[in-house]
Write a structure and sequence with these properties.
alpha+beta, single chain, five-stranded mixed sheet, six-stranded mixed sheet
Length: 478
Amino acid sequence: MNILLCDYSPVPETPLPAETPAPDGPEQGNASPCWTDLCRELQDQLDRKNIRIEQLFAGEDSAQERGPLRLFSPFNGTLYTQKYAGILSYRGHTIQILSRFDRPAGGQSPDQPQKNFFLSYLLSKALDIPIQSFPDLKVDSHTGEFWDLLLARLFLDQLKAACSRGLYRQYQTFRHNDSAPRGVLDIARHIRLNPMANGKCAYSAREYSLNNPMNHLILRARDCLLRKQGVIAGLVNQTLAADTDLRITLQQMEYAMDAFHAPSEQMILHRTDRPITHTVYREYEPLRRTARLILQRLGLDTFQAGSFQVSGMVIPMDKMWERFLEKAIFSRVEGISLSTQYRKAILENSFTIRPDFFLCYQGKPFVFDAKYKAGWGGLYSGQKDWNAVRDDLYQVISYLHLLKSERGGILFPLRSEAAQPRSYRLLQEELPDCLHLIPVPIPQSRDSFYDYARAFDESCEQVAREIQSILASAPQKS
């Protein structure tokens, strides 16, 4: 069964198919299992660390979360999704968590396909994926092709970064039977393979070789992407055609492999289960995780309906929102010096603050923060008050004070065709400091992705002009 959810949204009480085993737990009784029961069980397994789900694009500070991954959380008796989008396979069901901004406003049934224009546009800008790739996809949510494209782009980027540090080599023990022994003699195997004198000798040798499980994993993941054909294979072929060094690197790996004794995909996954901790090859560790995901999703087909294997990947939408703002909006602002994830030590170097965007414009500092939580849109629309975003508010005000910025802003998505920033004085008549709420209008669904992307481009251009106006309005230093 394909279960479709949206980030920061309640999980519907939709019943699961009758043949689905009831999720574990004392509260289930004889009631028919539903989506919420399955999601609660999944979160419980994550809390107990019985299962593991990969986070992509989490950033260096949050890639390894302290504590269990929080995909679902109860609030006032209702189970809600959190900040993650992604695709999971659990107990034979495929769970997709998509963007709430792609959910139709008219109340379409949650299990019906939806057009993922917002997620497509966000990925294209944040990950530098050509926007022309997305119209070739089957854009309804039931296909899951978004995640295949995401994995392909991530795999290629990580492969470039890893191979730029050199090819991955590892000590491996190989068994030979030839006339030039250079290792440990294997008497039992020699008697079996060479019953008569033929000039050969069976032996085992330990070599620092390219023929190792990690390189097998890389090549098999590439082959899985190429088998997808369509836009996924086109992206891989286009990248390899444009990058001669990367293409030659993969050819070197292939030449070093024993084509007659290639391990199975299950064996490759088993042999690459351990993290890569060698300092020289640290760039290969994120590539290992991504390549394993590709094999699990496209090679072993663990996402099929009858499978009870656990697999999946999620992306933190707050991090993706930050990347999007940097590349789609702040890149359009003129005359600024931009630092993303700027760091400043406070409290005698015992704590570090990290605003999302620290700008210098005409010698003056400015602080902007990216917020993806639904509470900011509710505050702007009048459905909620400042208490709903109290922690975020205190954080941004602290940044303004500590970094001596008289102007700051919070950028958040808003389902609207047009919206204007709002300015608030922090202390009326006492300080000139202003906090600006800057909504990024999310266009409503269009008939085609090209029309949607054009409308979103115009929206980003308008927000960039509004930020430029905010920077210019700051008082001059005396």
